[in-house]
Specification:
There is one protein chain. The protein has helices at residues 3-20, 28-66, 79-82. The protein has 94 residues and is mainly α. It is elongated.
Length: 94
Amino acid sequence: MSDSSTEERLRETLDALAAQVDAAPPAYEPARAQWRRRERRRRLILAVLIAIVFAVADLIGLWALNQTQDRTPIIFDDRTRIHQPDPTSGVGPP
C-alpha cells in the first residue's frame, strides 16, 4: 500500500461522509423559534413582576403616610428649637 492510495481512499471516505451531512438540520429553526418565544415570555413576566412590586411599594407608602394624624409632625418633631429665644436678639451693632 502506498501513501497516495491511502490518501485517495481517505479523501473518498471523507467526501462520502461530507455528502451525508445536511447543512442546516430541519429541527434547528423550530427549536430556535421556541427558545425565542420562551425568552420573550420570560422578559415580559419579569417586567410585569417589577411593575407590580413597584406599584405595591407605592401603595404601601401612600397608605402609611395617609394613616398619620393631621397634627402629628412626621419628620421634623423638634419643638424645643421652635420656642427657644433667638440668641442674636440682644446683640446690636457696635
